[in-house]
Design brief:
- The protein is an alpha/beta fold and 391 residues long.
- The chain folds into 2 domains: 266 residues, 3-Layer(aba) Sandwich (Aminopeptidase); 112 residues, Alpha-Beta Plaits (2-Layer Sandwich).
- Helices cover 36% and strands 25% of the residues.
- It has 10 helices and 16 strands.
- An 8-stranded mixed β-sheet has the order 1-2-4-3-5-16-6-15, sandwiched between helices.
- Helix 3 packs across helix 10.
- The longest helix has 21 residues.
């Protein structure tokens, strides 16, 4: 099953959809223009049913195959939200919403799922039901979790679920995937250190939280180098440091540290959290400071299921060829809320090469490569046709 000829025919139309979506980027759950456009396309396409208002601005489209002797239901997901980035990419269809940009390619993901929907409605060459999830708020809002919590997997009797993401730096139209942990859990840590403010010229009369913060910051780096198994993966980055001093000669009363923790297994995730709390508390106590620690767990690890990953690989190879599919790509320490859907149902998440060179996702010069649209549409439709072959 190479790239469907029909997607070559539909390529200009899908590209037009993608570029229109690119001009109207919206954030989080507040996607009125995006949702309205997607809904209009789905109704024009003629899906069998459409539920709107899921997770506020998301929707679920249902397409029935020619037959349903299998009784199976396969889900496909696309994310629709953008990022709070000012676009500087040199494109004709630049963002019309200042300070907002489709810098991660969600416009492309949405357009490709719309293209797959149009093909599946036209052909219906499968035995079962396809359920298409158009999801808001992937970029930090956890829209995937909200959709799962609202019961979409149970309500639509989904058996398996699949998704894809474009990946700059990977060969155009190629695929990359792995079994197990593909993307990391994304946790946040905030540390408030309180000492005793004072004059910089008489530090012995103060309790300097800057010194304490410096020791904590350095000591935390020992977690990944000395506590985590070297064969495991973990990242701990303190990215923000601030205090309440307003002058060069004033020792502050408080210092705040804020950062992110990325891990690929529940055991390492637990270990890092425990060590952060112990090291921070003990170090603050040694310097006579008090400390408040907030550790918030974000998206869980995106874990591809073994059998379903094999199916995803087979479809990818049929499209791109054996040599253009990496079945053992290294995991990424970025996060993805498709993880919640993979916790609810077996499935797999795959990367689609956006081409080598060019800016990475989340960069103001990032550009989605429209030439990969037929490959992405073919993979999405292929997962439906191969997991529910026509009777």
């Amino acid at each position: 099953m190479p790239i469907h000829n029909r997607f070559a025919d539909l390529h200009p139309e899908i590209t037009e959809w993608r570029r229109h979506l690119h001009t109207i980027p919206e954030l989080g759950f507040a996607l009125p223009q995006t949702a309205a456009f997607v809904e209009e396309r789905l109704r024009d396409i003629g899906v069998d049913s459409l539920e709107t208002g899921v997770a506020q601005t998301g929707m679920v489209a249902v397409i029935k195959g020619k037959t349903d002797t299998s009784g199976r239901v396969i889900g496909l997901r696309a994310d629709m939200d953008a990022l709070p980035i000012h676009e500087i990419a040199d494109v004709e269809y630049t963002s019309t919403h200042d300070g907002k940009m489709h810098a991660c390619g969600h416009d492309g993901h949405t357009a490709m799922l719309l293209g797959a929907a149009k093909y599946l409605v036209e052909t219906r060459n499968f035995d079962g039901t396809a359920v298409l999830f158009f999801q808001p708020a992937e970029e930090g809002g956890g829209g995937g979790k909200v959709m799962v919590d609202e019961g979409v997997m149970d309500r639509y009797n989904v058996d398996e679920v699949y998704g894809l993401h474009n990946m700059p730096g990977c060969a155009e139209g190629g695929f990359a995937i792995r079994k197990g942990g593909l993307m990391a859990a994304t946790d946040l840590v905030e540390i408030k250190i309180t000492g005793k403010g004072g004059h910089g010229a008489i530090p012995h009369q103060a309790i300097d939280p800057n010194i304490t913060a410096a020791h904590i910051l350095l000591a935390l780096q020992s977690i990944t180098s000395r506590n985590v198994d070297p064969l495991e993966n973990a990242v701990l980055s303190i990215c923000m440091m601030s205090n309440d001093s307003s002058a060069f000669n004033v020792i502050p009363q408080t210092v705040n540290l804020c950062g992110t923790v990325r891990t690929l297994s529940p055991e390492v995730r637990d270990l890092v959290e425990q060590r952060i709390k112990k090291i921070t508390s003990s170090t603050a106590d040694a310097f006579d400071c008090s400390v408040e620690i907030v550790y918030e767990r974000g998206y869980p690890v995106t874990v591809n299921h073994d059998v379903e990953t094999d199916h995803a690989i087979a479809v990818a190879k049929s499209i791109a060829g054996e040599g253009a599919v990496d079945p053992n790509t290294p995991p990424m320490m970025a996060g993805e809320d498709f993880s919640y859907m993979l916790e609810a149902r077996p499935g797999a998440y795959i990367f689609l090469g956006n081409g080598e060179g060019g800016a990475m996702v989340h960069h103001p010069e990032y550009v989605f490569n429209d030439d990969i649209i037929p490959a992405g549409c073919s993979w999405l439709a292929g997962m439906i046709e191969t997991r529910m072959p026509a009777a």
